[in-house]
Amino acid sequence: MALNDVLTKKQAQAFKSYLTDDWRTLILSGAVRAGKTYIDNLIFTDELRRVRNLARKKGDNHPQYILAGYSSNTIYDNVIASLERQLGIELKPDRHGHYHLFGVDIVPAYTGTARGMNAIRGMTSYGAYVNEASLAANDAFKEIVNRCSEEGSRIIADTNPDIPTHWLKKDYIDNKDPKAKIKAFNFTIDDNTFLDPAYVEALKASTPKGMFYDRAIKGLWVTGEGVVYKDFDKDRMTISPSQIPAGLRYYAGVDWGFEHLNSIGVFGEDDQGNIFLLEEHTGKGKFISHWVDVAKDIQHRYGQSIVFACDSARPDNSNEFLAAGINAVNANKAILPGVECVSKFMANGKFFVNREGVQEFFNEIYQYIWDEKTGLPVKEHDDVMDMMRYAIYTQHAGGGYVPWK
Ligand SMILES: Nc1ncnc2c1ncn2[C@@H]1O[C@H](COP(=O)(O)OP(=O)(O)O)[C@@H](O)[C@H]1O
Ligand SMILES: [Mg+2]
């Protein structure tokens, strides 16, 4: 059986490099669902066999190897579960949480927290497999590299792209110094010829244009530029009150402000997942009693139990809401996932604005732009935008509301 029958071209290229090139760090980066983890899993099992043989020659019968990922859940989902599927085996952790395969003790490390890295402090490893490497702090990655101090140890990593100035891109992927012995391969979604073309087409159509598309589909290390909500189409997405369906599920968002704008918005959603921005109340220099009145009026019209996803930066204001019997919860404020979530509704043509219900929305939607340095939105013209993100993302992030304490 030829390699190209079981691997994509890009995977075969990476695997050949793995087998024949002189490298110490092998990094696979790029699009989602591109086949990075699949080939890294195969390389990982080959590395384990190599490590076992290396250790045997040294008379070391307890070789250790690091398996790093953002959290215990992501290591399980991305590596362990897919490895089990790929190899048709079952991997059970021992009482220390370590895995054992081909005579190697595999020690998990979680790069997302300092505590998650404790397991490998002081350890001497024959190598490491780092999943979602760009999510690790630079120090955590360096610590992993430092632990790989056995002679002949090597590091394999896979990652989705981030901003072009990310340490993983600058210091490793772009490091062409032969002495650094780094090999890097970049994947696009079209490299994965095992995916159903209809699935790929649907994924492309539903991925927001701009940075999200360039990273997730094309696999590019790019930052955002221009307006954040590129898929917002005023002609298609602005509607009049008569076009708003009745009987929606209603929820609200709040971005607190006094010197900046304070914004409260009400959204309605139908069973097809269409979101309607029904009304928006935005103003400057007004005290909390005013906003309590606005929220009470909203409750009166949309239902007593309507949830207000609030900016957590002003607990005093949120407490005033609670004291007035308004259902205030802490918004999920994760910026990029939140922007991506809102963008997806727009990309899918499932976002609508009541032209007669909004005040500042149209002022902000075209002025809300990316900061090319950080890859995050610029913190200007963002009050209605934040309110909208809090409302929609808190509703759709999963895991339920964070109760206000
Ligand atoms: N060579 C292959 N043969 C069969 N299926 C593959 C192959 N490469 C990838 N896949 C499948 O394609 C999907 C995405 O691959 P994955 O490696 O998880 O992508 P990535 O890590 O780039 O997000 C998975 O379901 C995986 O099993
Ligand atoms: Mg992956």
Explain what you see:
By secondary structure, this protein is α/β, with parallel strands linked by helices. It folds into two domains: 3-195, Rossmann fold (3-Layer(aba) Sandwich), CATH 3.40.50; 234-396, Nucleotidyltransferase, domain 5 (2-Layer Sandwich), CATH 3.30.420.280. It is 37% helix and 20% strand. The chain is built from 14 helices and 16 strands. It has helices spanning 3-6, 9-20, 36-58, 72-87, 138-147, 167-173, 197-206, 211-216, 234-237, 288-302, 315-323, 335-347, 361-365, 383-396; strands at residues 25-30, 64-69, 99-101, 104-110, 127-130, 154-159, 182-187, 238-239, 249-255, 262-269, 275-283, 307-310, 327-330, 351-354, 370-371, 376-377. It has a seven-stranded mixed sheet with strand order 3-4-2-5-6-1-7, with helices on both faces. Helix 3 (36-58) crosses helix 4 and helix 12 (335-347) packs across helix 14. The model is unreliable at 399-405 (pLDDT under 50).
What layout of secondary structure does this protein have?
Blueprint: H1 3-6, H2 9-20, E1 25-30, H3 36-58, E2 64-69, H4 72-87, E3 99-101, E4 104-110, E5 127-130, H5 138-147, E6 154-159, H6 167-173, E7 182-187, H7 197-206, H8 211-216, H9 234-237, E8 238-239, E9 249-255, E10 262-269, E11 275-283, H10 288-302, E12 307-310, H11 315-323, E13 327-330, H12 335-347, E14 351-354, H13 361-365, E15 370-371, E16 376-377, H14 383-396
Parallel strand pairs: 1-6, 1-7, 2-4, 2-5, 5-6, 8-14, 9-12, 11-14, 12-13
Antiparallel strand pairs: 3-4, 9-10, 10-11, 15-16
Helix pairs in contact: 3-4, 12-14
